[in-house]
Amino acid sequence: MVLNTAVVLPDEVPVEISAEVLSSPSLLFLYYRIEHILGIRARSEALQNLNKYLEKTCGSSFIEDPASYEKLLTSREQIFKISKFLTVSETYFFREGEHFELLTELMPRFAELNRPVQICSAAVSSGCEAYSIAMLFDYYSRNGLNIDFSIDAFDVNLEAIETARKARYTLNTIRDNSANWRHILYSYLIQDKDEYVISPSIQSKIRFFPHNIMRGLEKQYDIIFFRNSLIYFSTKNRFNVINNLADSLYNNGLLFLGISETSSVKHPLLLNCCSSKTFYFKKINSALSLPVPEWNPINIPAQKSYNKSIFNANKTYEEKREYSQTDPIHTKSSPAQTLKHTRLLINLNEINVIIKHEEGKQNAENVLDTLNNGDTNSISGSCFAAAALYYLHNQYFDIANMILTLLEKSNSGAYTKFLRGEYYFMLKQGEEALNCFHEAAVKNKFFWPAYYRIVSLSAESNRTSYEYKIKKAIESIELSQTDKQINKDNYECFMGGFSPDYFLRILKKKLTLKQEVKNES
């Protein structure tokens, strides 16, 4: 039989497509049409259920009437209806509570906007996420904080949206791992036999509607939640989705992805931040993603007064001995010319002391002031590294680059390589960053931050390679925790002060999710 509509295949067939789908013209047609319309990589079982629904709706099979299939898939209303076959509506109240802890910390900042906070809950499923956000904001509003808000919540699954609008939930949506929030949750739930109804005051703060994220968003937001949904999208469409989200954030607006998704996302307008033991993104000025100019003393901000004793106090005996055996170069023409080519040592405990107790900002300004005066002899390797960390985290890339260039002249160890990798990592230069992190990992097998970054940059590699790198990162963390000789080294200063247990949990979750995807395909 001759088909009325040709099925056009791409040059490369994605590895996610099962043999069962490849052998069926109707399933293969649906796979590519769904991927094009919704960006979703539909599983074989989902496509089979969708195909049965379409056959029943059309009264014929794809082979008999492909035009009817095409007509249904071009209908916006039908897309919202059939999406129930393609997505999973797993949700519960205050899921991934770390994000709500961070929102709690930021409440005073939102109150300073002097206008309603604009919030979006994208891919909201049956509504628990949007209601949780509304409860949290309303709770603090009722307890003395002058704050107002409105929430737009959407999902491509019309059935899920209709459930959210009804605002009726079973006990299954109240989980043990959200116990810390029950004092808020129960104050907004009204029990009705075996179900719980959301308070009308909370319902009134949320607008639920069906929407396809691939079409972008209609307005700007201060906060966007888009959690645990990227896994459904094809690789080539993930950037389109993230780009739509970034475009719809106000400057300094916040984006929350699922805890296991954050490290795989790179976008020039989104700065990866960490607070309250969780990662999130902040919308930044696009100028920060431009090429970094060479260092020029004119560009350095004015320096504040400081206490120079920090430098000598933090120098090790070996560093002092090296300096005493080398004659200084008497010139102030540039910082690069004044640094002696001795081996600067980096002590992680010293970096932690500088960052936590001596204030990283003061040390960073200290280093710049000393360099401007042409005196590098008093700067320890640890102070150089701590200053580089400070300027990297605060997006002063030109200054960070200058300091790293000087440090690299006298130290080529794992920590310096890692810092250079961080510089490239934050500038979205993935290949250069990956090379630096690999060098750092080779130099020190216990240096788990390097392995973690390798995993972050390898999310799009083939499944076997990605799993291997996750396992290597887990192994590095476990080695650093159990080896008594290495235990004295505290690597947490490179990862925002967070313990390796936090990153170990993320890595193990990544491995579990990857295995689940493999089993499904």
Secondary structure elements and their pairing?
Layout: H1 19-22, H2 25-38, H3 44-58, H4 66-73, H5 76-82, H6 97-111, E1 117-122, H7 128-142, E2 149-155, H8 158-166, E3 168-169, H9 182-185, E4 189-192, E5 195-198, H10 200-203, E6 206-210, E7 221-225, H11 235-247, E8 249-256, E9 270-275, E10 278-283, H12 309-314, H13 317-324, H14 335-338, H15 348-356, H16 360-372, H17 381-393, H18 397-408, H19 414-426, H20 430-443, H21 448-457, H22 463-482, H23 500-520
Parallel strand pairs: 1-2, 1-7, 2-6, 7-8
Antiparallel strand pairs: 3-5, 4-5, 8-10, 9-10
Helix pairs in contact: 2-3, 6-7, 15-17, 16-17, 17-18, 17-19, 18-19, 19-20, 20-21, 21-22, 22-23
How would you describe this protein?
By secondary structure, this protein is of the alpha/beta class. It has three domains: 19-85, no CATH class; 97-288, Rossmann fold (3-Layer(aba) Sandwich); 297-520, Serine Threonine Protein Phosphatase 5, Tetratricopeptide repeat (Alpha Horseshoe). Helix content is 48%, strand content 10%. The strands form two sheets. The protein has a seven-stranded mixed β-sheet, sandwiched between helices. A three-stranded antiparallel β-sheet has the order 3-5-4.
